Amino acid sequence: MTTARYYHAGCPVCIEAEQTLLGLLDPSINVEIVHLGEQAQRVSEAEQAGVKSVPALVVEGQVLHLNFGAAIADLK
Amino acid sequence: MTTARYYHAGCPVCIEAEQTLLGLLDPSINVEIVHLGEQAQRVSEAEQAGVKSVPALVVEGQVLHLNFGAAIADLK
User: Which one of A14, A49, A56, B41 has the minimum C-beta count within 10 Å?
Assistant: First the structure.
């Protein structure tokens, strides 16, 4: 089973992208949604995965930055 | 059936995002792949859909800009 992480910060761009994207994904994909505004301790995990801005989807080592809500640096 | 359009310009960022994203989508979604470098006459269609840069996925009036390959203005 493929596991993906959707990192966001609760911003309007993040929520809109989430609604658009997650409805399109294969139902077999397990998506963990990580709100970095509420889980600030996971910002470094996102950075290490290559996330530069949110919202972003990380899957199998690849990062898809979706539109632009906030820079990761602004979440620290 | 949901129909989506994936606009790209053949750039490395475009191809990488395509490989990552399209494999994640629900198989029931019909994705039309539009290479704006080869179909320059469709740049205006993409712009009208709200595409600012490629690669981008347009679905049901929503635009997801994925990473950043090229600005739409540079494809004219």
Answer: B41
